[in-house]
């Protein structure tokens, strides 16, 4: 019965089926199954397959977003039942679309992949004021800081977050990754960020590499 | 040749004496606002100020076109979208999407460009610019938001993209109404005196839609708008952001006179695809070069873009508001220097 539920979770993500995802997540709870196992072997497995297909250009952004939508339909039901620190990494990532921009599709996709890889995400949403985001970094002490923007004028908000982190004395020991249409590796190094990720796969790969190195 | 002859010639794929240096993308910068005493956000709402700031791109910076408006939410306001958060250096953002359900789609009528949202502001600015004797020889470009991008603004961009996979009939219903509006607005702009319609369909990028999706959800609608512009004897330039490599064959099929690409694209490669079919427009980097570097760097990049074969020199995306005036001028001067054929 439980393996069937797990395959149902995986299939719901692959088939972009929000309804099936919710039903399967509720089954996990009803059957008192291991929640983390169901997430990893069902939802996450499905999402990783989706990411691979996307990387190989077998599918495109609309399908990925629809799969992510199904992923969250189940994940949001299961998350409250996860034991703290029970995920594979447990490391925290603070993420936002910086002040001045409301385009958050890329950020949401990165967030999905980061969560699917076992990190805890503190999502500050879109158009997040610089001071708010810096304060979150001070309060939460994440291991990673991720920022994105799709608009050229808002690139300066990234610079201001970097400056704010230094002023608050919280830059050291944290890895900063940026992404989004107008920014590039050159801009990342200019503002003192650690990495520019061209897409969500590249970003998550880098995050995991840093972890392996003990970063 | 005057500026109009040069741009129209380039769009008609005819020989021109020198490449034109224009901007089908937004031109409002802080330096130009100061120089013209017409500032955002007022210049988005007042036709006189809109015309004044748009004209400054030509008279102060030397750009060989005048372009209105400065933001991409005019079309959505016509459908009743709520916008805000705009200030002197920030374009209005869409705060609430107006067509989020099939019921709302059903009841949405096609707005009248003469009365709906901020469209009348743009049309009045065009009328004023068109009768300005100092701009008699300068091409007047009106930007409209293309059907796929507009559908995203009306529905919510992430939702509209998901609809492509999950609710194709619903998003096609929105695309249909968006297209009918695009046609009406383009016609009204041409009637008011615009010479060129820039169709900004930024989110129909290859980063969002794969080739089969672009062929189904973007191209046919863009083509209808292009056809309508053509019937009114206007010129069309299609601008799409991001990596458009795989969708380029379908972009060509829209029949647009010009295809404008952003700085992520290799303009030499684009020219090879478009040669003999469509004018190649682009693609000096608006951020890493025009915003952040020095005039000498702008000159070098403009020269590179010209040597790679662009037919029309333009920024790859709208000018960022902090772009130094000296850099805008450097792009124009470099075109004068290296663009002679």
Model description:
The complex is a heterodimer of chains A (215) and B (341). Chain A has 215 residues and is of the alpha/beta class. Chain A has 2 domains: 2-81, Methionine synthase domain (Methyltransferase, Methionine Synthase (B12-binding Domains), Chain A, domain 1, Orthogonal Bundle); 92-212, Rossmann fold (3-Layer(aba) Sandwich), CATH 3.40.50.280. Helix content of chain A is 56%, strand content 10%. Chain A has helices spanning 2-14, 18-30, 35-55, 61-78, 105-116, 130-140, 155-167, 185-191, 200-212; strands spanning 92-97, 120-123, 144-148, 175-179, 195-196. Chain A starts with a helix and ends with a helix. Chain B is built from 15 helices and 9 strands. The mean pLDDT of chain B is 97. The chains are: A alpha/beta (215), B alpha/beta (341).
Using brief descriptors, characterize the structure shown.
heterodimer, A: 215 residues, alpha/beta, Methyltransferase, Methionine Synthase (B12-binding Domains), Chain A, domain 1, Rossmann fold, 2 domains, 9 helices, globular, B: 341 residues, TIM Barrel, two-stranded antiparallel ribbon, 9 strands
Question: How would you briefly describe this protein structure?
Answer:
The complex is a heterodimer of chains A (about 220) and B (about 350). Chain A has helices at about 1-15, 20-30, 35-55, 60-80, 105-115, 130-140, 155-165, 185-190, 200-210; strands spanning about 90-95, 120-125, 145-150, 175-180, 195. Chain A is α/β, with parallel strands linked by helices and about 220 residues long.
């Amino acid at each position: 019965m439980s393996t069937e539920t797990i395959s149902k979770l995986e299939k719901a993500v692959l088939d972009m089926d929000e309804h099936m995802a919710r039903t399967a997540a509720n089954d996990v709870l009803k059957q008192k199954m291991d929640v983390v196992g169901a997430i990893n072997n069902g939802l996450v497995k499905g999402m990783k397959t989706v990411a691979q297909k996307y990387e190989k250009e077998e599918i495109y952004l609309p399908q990925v977003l629809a799969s992510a939508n199904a992923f969250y339909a189940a994940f949001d039901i299961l998350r409250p039942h996860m034991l703290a620190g029970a995920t594979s990494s447990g490391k925290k990532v603070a993420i936002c679309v910086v002040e001045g921009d409301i385009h958050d599709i890329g950020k949401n996709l990165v967030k999905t992949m980061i969560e699917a890889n076992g990190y805890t995400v503190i999502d500050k949403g879109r158009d997040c004021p610089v001071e708010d985001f810096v304060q979150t970094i001070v309060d939460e002490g994440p291991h990673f800081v991720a920022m994105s923007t799709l608009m050229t004028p808002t690139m300066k908000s990234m610079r201001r977050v970097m400056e704010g982190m230094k002023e608050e004395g919280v830059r050291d020991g944290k890895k900063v990754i940026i992404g989004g249409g107008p920014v590039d590796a050159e801009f990342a190094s200019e503002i003192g960020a650690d990495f520019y990720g061209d897409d969500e796969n590249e970003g998550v790969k880098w995050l995991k590499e840093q972890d392996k190195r003990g970063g | 040749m005057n500026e109009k002859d040069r741009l129209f010639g380039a769009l008609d794929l005819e020989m021109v004496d020198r490449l034109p240096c224009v901007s089908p993308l937004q031109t409002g910068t802080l330096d130009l606002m100061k120089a013209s005493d017409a500032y955002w956000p007022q210049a988005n709402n007042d036709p006189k100020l809109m015309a004044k700031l748009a004209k400054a791109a030509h008279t102060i910076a030397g750009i060989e076109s005048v372009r209105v408006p400065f933001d991409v939410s005019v079309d959505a306001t016509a459908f009743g979208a709520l916008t805000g958060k705009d200030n002197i250096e920030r374009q209005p953002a869409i705060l609430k999407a107006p067509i989020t359900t099939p019921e709302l789609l059903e009841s949405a009528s096609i707005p009248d460009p003469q009365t709906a949202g901020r469209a009348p502001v743009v049309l009045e600015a065009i009328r004023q610019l068109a009768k300005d004797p100092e701009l008699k020889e300068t091409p007047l470009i009106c930007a409209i938001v293309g059907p796929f991008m507009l559908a995203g603004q009306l529905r919510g961009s992430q939702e509209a993209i998901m609809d492509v996979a999950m609710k194709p009939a619903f998003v096609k219903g929105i695309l249909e109404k968006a297209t009918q509006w695009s046609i009406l607005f383009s016609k009204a702009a041409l009637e008011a005196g615009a010479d060129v319609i820039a169709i900004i369909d930024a989110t129909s990028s290859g980063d969002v839609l794969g080739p089969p999706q672009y062929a189904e959800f973007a191209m046919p609608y863009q083509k209808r708008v292009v056809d309508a512009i053509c019937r009114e004897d206007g010129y069309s330039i299609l601008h799409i952001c991001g990596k458009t490599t795989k969708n380029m064959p379908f972009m060509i099929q829209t029949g647009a006179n010009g295809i404008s690409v952003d700085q992520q694209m290799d303009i030499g490669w684009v020219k090879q695809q478009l040669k003999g079919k469509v004018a190649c427009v682009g693609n000096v980097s608006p951020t890493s070069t025009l915003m952040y570097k020095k005039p000498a760097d702008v000159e070098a990049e403009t020269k590179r873009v010209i040597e790679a074969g662009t037919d029309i020199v333009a920024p790859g995306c709208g000018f960022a508001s902090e772009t130094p005036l000296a850099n805008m001028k450097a792009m124009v001067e470099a075109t004068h220097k290296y663009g002679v054929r």
